[in-house]
Amino acid sequence: MSPDHPPGLDLDRLRTLLDRERPGLVQGPLTGRLIEGGRSNLTYALSDGTSRWVVRRPPLGHVLATAHDMKREHRVISALHPTDVPVPRPVLLCEDDDVLGAPFYVMEFVEGTPYRTADQLAALGPERTRQAVLSLVDTLVDLHAVDPAEVGLADFGRPEGFLDRQLRRWGKQLDASRNRELAGIDELHATLGRRLPTSPAPAVVHGDYRLDNVLIGSEPPKGADRIKAVLDWEMSTLGDPLTDLGLLVMYSLPLGMADSPVSTTAEAPGHPDPAELIERYAVRSGRDVSAVSWYTAFAWFKLAVILEGIHYRYTLGQTVGRGFDRIGDLVPVFIDHGLTTLQEG
After folding, report:
1. Average pLDDT over residues 107-121
2. Which of 77, 202, 325, 345 could form a disulfide with 159 if both were Cys (CB 3.0 to 4.6 A apart)?
3. Quick check: pTM over 0.85?
4. DSSP 8-state secondary structure symbol assigned to residue 113
């Protein structure tokens, strides 16, 4: 399979579909390449030599449940595109497995950079870093200000009992990958359950909101950095908006672990501290954020469970690549941060 014809992307069948459903869209021969960095669904850059698009599909050998993600992702960006929330323009949803072997959707290609590490962010300099992170908060406020019913997302999730279901779901995930003692993890889970806050009015929740899930680019004529697009909507639903804030706060705190295989961007010069992010969100959204420590501790717990799952698969020889051998060392760090956050809250 050549680089221009990556696995999972049949360009001939895709061209036939696009010519039929969006006549005149594609002007020249199509080429495609896999965009690295995604953890679950596959993302490809597509070009006809003049215009560019992006294709999103489930992993090769996907299970049926992931097919549903494509329709949900396409639905949410289609709903949000007319709003103030920057998302790529949707082009096409295809639920016919005969084209690429799985459901997929096509959207416009947006120029921008996903900043994944503090070192990458540091290249912007302190002032641009500060503005980029503050704009991340402002965009989150815009997302949570969208009325789900007004954009056709009234049935996009089940907000009632959202936090309780989330806590039980991640507890089950932990049980499914538990093969060693993890000091404090049960205490963290139980304390989160005892202190479950009362959720505010439901909103469209991204579910994985952080700096490397947005594209940042500059706009002429002044060249100011702004968020060009929010990506990776596979975990989006209707629920408690403060879960997005808690995750954003968690990723804005230093891990305190040298040479970590998982990094936050908190160490970048100019990065606003969590207190400023929380205050900015509170002022702009008008929401009560007094329980933010719970949501941040829940984010530490959720990431600890995710990392333990990766470590579990590593011990079974089911992961390939660098850094997996050190993931297990991170889990106790996340647990400790979660417990400390609850105690300080």
Report:
1. 91
2. 202
3. yes
4. B
